[in-house]
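Supplementary Methods S3. Input chains for the assembly prediction are listed below.
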Amino acid sequence: MELIPLDWVAIGFWIGVVVVTFGISFIFFKKHLKFTEKTKNQLAFCLVFLALAIGRAILVYSDYFLTGLNLEAYETFQMIWKVATLFEMMGLGFLIIVSEYAVFKGKDYYVFIIGYTIVVIISIFIIQDFFLAQTVSVAAIGFAAFLPISYIYLAIKLPMARRNVIMLLIGFIIFGFGLLLISAGIVSLLGQENIHLLYLISAIVQIPGLLIMAISINRMYFTEKV
Amino acid sequence: MALLPLDWIAIVVWIGVVVISFGISLALFLKRLKFTEKTKIQLAFCFFFLCLGIGRAILVYADYFITELIVVEYFNNQLIWKIANFFVIVGLAFLILVSEYAVFKGKDYYVFTIGYAIVIIIAIFFIQDFYTVQNFTSAAVGFAAFIPISYIYLAIKFPMVRRNVILLLGGFLIFGAGLLLISAGLVNLLGGDVHLIYLLSAIVQIPGILIMAIAIKWLYFSEEK
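Predicted structure tokens for the full assembly:
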């Protein structure tokens, strides 16, 4: 059934509802919440772990109980994969925005986070073909390569925080390695028959990565001494 | 395909990943972020509008471009419907939480928010049949009936903010009427043209949201209060 002209008028109004709602949220966030830079960073880090947890919880359910780690089944359940990936990407997005601000203080017009967001939106919402969506979402992770580079830069530039920044870098690399292990490309390379083992190793690798990141973030952003 | 013993070990470790991530987030939120009560309430309202925005954006896409407002199509595409409603419902949960705190100050052990959350989790994650899911989400909205009742109570109890609370109540009722218009039960009851009902709902919701935003700004975001 084609959309009738009345529907297009309604879609216009519904877009109005969405824009008004987002607008109010944005105004409240930006103009009325008088947060310091430190509090904003703290909030972003809270949201990093929250988004990662929600995304991973959905992925555990879909990987094991919907698709059974069968690559062909992912196409059938691609909507849930996309939702979970969206949360994971949001988590990484918060991490990128904090790092980008720490390095450029907004002078680069947030080019990395904007580029990352555009690629994520295209891969999750616009592309219908599952394999293409996966490939584009990996391209989004390319923007996340900014993270370790920014940590190296900050470690060089800020000697006082160097130890914690290096710890964050190591945690991120370990966590990122765990994520990469179960990316479609690596699974294809190492063979579908090893997928069950790869998923187990990935989880085992991610836990210390997350913990190391959390400890260094706690020391850098949540401790009064810094 | 049945899960291997290795998979069950992996599932346990993955649950560890999830619990640790949630745990870190919760520890940072609750223990490290020293927000005042007012800031927490402000943040809750920000998230309320953010969640509504995300949920509605997904629903517009699902309603018009996936299901094209055909009831049968909702059965085939119930996952996207569930996700969108999940966001809208989480948004409403923030509103319930703030109202419940304003009335009871935590003395009721957040029974409305917890009841609401339990019904939602059952509806969204455990029930597969679309009609039952819809009925359950309607039951959850029943908990949201606490919101207008709490506003009436607050308007009576606090004469100084009465005008703003009544404004908030007015906005919520208009917005709620817009939401109810497109609920499955009412669409069936009213019959008629579903396309027109959806248009009317959008037209009704916009002033509702704006009135709520104005009232919330006066109540919680102005220095004078």
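Chain B touches chain A through 60 residues (CB under 8 Å). The mean pLDDT of chain B is 86.
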